[in-house]
Amino acid sequence: MKIKAVNEQLLKQTMDSLVKFLATQGFTNVRITDKVGDFYARDIRNVIAGIQADDIRGFGIAIQNGQPIIIGDDYAQGLTIQNFTKMFENFYTAVTMQAALKAMGYQVNATVLPKMEIAVRGIKGSGYGV
Amino acid sequence: MSSGYKRIDIKVDEHGKVHLDTSGFSGDSCVKEAEKLIALLQQAGLDVNTEQVKLKESYYAKAESCVEVKRQ
Hints:
The complex is a heterodimer of chains A (130) and B (72).
Chain A: E1 2-3, H1 8-24, E2 31-38, E3 43-53, E4 56-64, E5 67-71, H2 81-103, E6 107-112, E7 118-125
Antiparallel strand pairs in A: 2-3, 3-4, 4-5, 6-7
Helix pairs in contact in A: 1-2
Chain B: E1 5-12, E2 18-23, H1 29-43, E3 46-47, E4 50-55, H2 57-60, E5 67-71
Antiparallel strand pairs in B: 1-2, 2-5, 4-5
């Protein structure tokens, strides 16, 4: 599953989920930002949404040629750009799944599993939720 | 299961592949529901390619748990 275009509302929900998740992984002062430092933090770039923490100088999502790209310099950071990318893609996919299931009338919940796997369950129908 | 509720279980695995499993559906309604879900995901900007579809035994009978789909 590839992200071809980013929906701003889903991106915001994804970033909120990532902030909460990273806080459970030992990162402190995790926050959303609109600027991250690339190239040893010498090049500060605007992003549509990014994440910083005490141990993360910043990773963010920018649009290049209509496609979302992840930017940030991971030198000596608590998280590599590969790990952040994987985390972002899985969270964004799961958030999009939840939104789609909700639009189809399902009650949804999601759980983050080990190895960055995410389980999403949607249930609907008579007798459920009573 | 004739409880009248339908369930879709999705797992986004460590490689970003999506596994989808349905239960509580009858006949091909699970396939249609999966197609509806895929259409919404595509509208939302996800590129969805179906890799494997496994129809469960109950798909051919009065299905309750009828499809398992793997997507990349």
